[in-house]
Fold:
Amino acid sequence: MKKSSENIIIIGAGGHGKVIADIIIKSGDCLLGFLDDNLSSENNISGYPILGKIGDIYKFENKAKFIIGIGNNYTRKQITEKYKVIWHTAIHPSAVIAFDVNIEAGTVVMANTVINTSAKIGKHCIVNSGAIVEHDNDISNYVHISPNVSIGGTVKLGELTHIGIGATIRNNISITSQCTIGAGAVVVKNIADRGIYVGIPAKKLENL
Structure:
């Protein structure tokens, strides 16, 4: 049965917000517009209005659900801690998601992603275009999985971790919170220390 259409407002009108707008439209929901601190109501994004600043969010809480169109993990967390509203989950129609996957509120799943059986995706995550999240993964809140990332089975990613474009994570790996895995890196061992990891195999950058 087809779901009923919902009214959605996107927080953040940059490039990431525009991609989310496309998901909302293609999913059959109604995009009312954007809230953005850097743009005025004189602007519009692909024909959709800037409705106000982020601080205006409560003016619309009885009219719409909200989703954050900002790629920075820490900024998404700050916004959700400050504003207590109903958060929308956006999933592109082309995403392939197993029947028993659990995706929490505020998360965005973009085009051509694959999320396989028994995976868990936390709140306000980004699973970006073409990413593969294999079976039994446990993805914590505010994680960003970039385009074309491949994550093997039974991987755990800690809160606020960012996986760069095209990175690969071997199966049965655990990565702690607040880590950055560089573009194209290959993770073959557990990562217990926070930091930035790059290369093949991935190693921590020192003396930053």
The chain has two domains: 7-82, 90-198. The mean pLDDT is 95.
